[in-house]
Design goal:
heterodimer; A: about 300 residues; 9 helices; B: about 350 residues; alpha+beta; 2 domains; four-stranded antiparallel β-sheet; 11 helices
Chain lengths: ~300, ~350
Amino acid sequence: MTDSVGASPLAVRALTEAPHVMTGQEMLMGNAYRPWPARITSIRELTAHEKLFEFRLTDERVREAFVHEPGQFVELSLFGVGEVPISITSSPTKQGFIELCVRRTGTVTEQLHRMQCGDIVGLRGPFGRGFPVEQMRGNDILVVAGGLGIAPVRSLINYIHDNRSDFGKVTIVYGSRTPADIMFRDQFEMWRHRKDFDLILTVDEPDDTWDGEVGVVTEPMKKLDINPANTFGAVCGPPVMYRFVVEVMREKNISYDHIYMSFERHMKCGMGKCGHCQIGHQYCCIDGPVFNYWEAKNIQGSM
Amino acid sequence: MLYRVMDKSQLPALVRGFMESYEVVAPVKRGERYVFDTVDSPDQIALDYPQTASSAKKYLFPPVEAMMRFDARANLVQDFVQEVKPRVIFGAHACDISGFNRLDLALAQGKYTDPYYAARRAATLVVGISCMPTDTCFCQLMGADEVQFGYDLFLYDIGDKYLVSMSSVEATNILEACCEIAEATDDDRRAFRLATRRHQAAFNPDIPHVEDVPMLMDVFHFDPFWDELGGRCLSCSACASVCPTCYCFDIRDVLQEDSDAGVRERTWDACTSPDFALVAGGHNFRPTGRDRVRHRMYHKLNGFMVNHDRMLCTGCGRCVAACKADIDPIQVLRFFDEKGARDDR
């Protein structure tokens, strides 16, 4: 092996302090594997297993460059434990803060659940392709969520809420296992009497106090009166749910390319490299996680 | 493409010329096998090798690589600069270079550039050498039997001389400084054509040439063939480690002992590992050997093609030798070749 290396070595950098001349976008994209510090600004318990965390990126340039679409996700790092992909549950209309709804289910999320306001985590992103809100504008929206699937679609729901006059009729069908598992119930309760949102909550296992629907989300969906020509579907839930929900949407004659679904996979790098989130010929992390039904039909193993 | 000829006797001078400024990696003989390794003398290089056991991708994409250092207590990235050693991969076959070019598409191009791969690729010169196919070579079926770019020099063996394709200033400067190079004569040109003709004729005719492989991968996606092929998989990841184009990886944090400091590193991973498509909460999107082997072949022979217009297989045949369960793309080609030929229902 030779030691007489004359050509100048190249270097890969993951600097703590970026040079002052860099813009926030350059900081985010320079080495997109590099997480940026974010402070926990609020923690709210949603259920026994899920908490809503609010974060604020500490660097002003990064914070301003971080602009997401409803349906996109971030990679959250707890150094020494690891990194996990989590969908952003806040709307881009809420500026300067990022909300993540996190279920306690693995080492990173377990550790995150033990953290407190003021603690620092690492965030990088936003990654992926979200819901096509520009295309959806002016149309009726039918949101169907199951369980933790409410997290990514809440970003869309809140976006619609903040731009309410830009959208037509909005119907939300949200299924949970038990009444205690319903997330964001206070937010939804507040809307219960509003005329501009139709909210249908359903549970698999009702308790004595439950006065909503019982059973799978597809049952109340079947009773809905839908104008297929100008309706967009937005679906997220456990893997088994998609096929049944999409079937009902197709029965209602919603076009293949108006049914949007957010898929769950293990997006490890977020950048279309590591391969973990591949579905057929696509990467969930950059081609999705939101795909329309036509695209999904063309991807081997998507549903 | 610019080309000159040089006498074969000048090869050691060329290697030594590179050694002045670069670490030189080349095929060397280890027991019965050939491997890419660092050399400190031209004598160690076995340029007339059939195929190396594993590819040279480790020099662009190491099996374990530090991505950043961190302070786990503060949850912050620490200053970190990783220097990349300037290197020459000397004596790569066309399929190897074609493999690099396909890795470029996956890792260096697209919306995101992988900065680690890109830095190594930029710091690495590639000198190609023409070859003769082995029994397990099928690069001509994967469009990888010849390369037009992605190298700095390419040496075509034309008998006593090399016809040298010169593709970069950096390598040409060294070539011109160390070797006598000449304009090709008509005899040289004829010798080159003869060599390409001989190469073309030497491929194993038993490996079937099948048309429309990507479409066949979709059409026969649910054929019982995949249960049989995937059912044999031992999940050992040997195929992915020797493969010149497998680039899947895992990211993990490694804490230093008795300290809050640590390193985030990435390691090679393989889609044939049972946990590869596992998500939080325990759902596995590819729970069986059938799902995983089919996905690996699908990405090689369909998925990458759909996105990049070329296969993610270079037909180098390394996995044919590495797999203990006889799972490789040739098996897939044979399956397509036999389908409809005998049982024409």
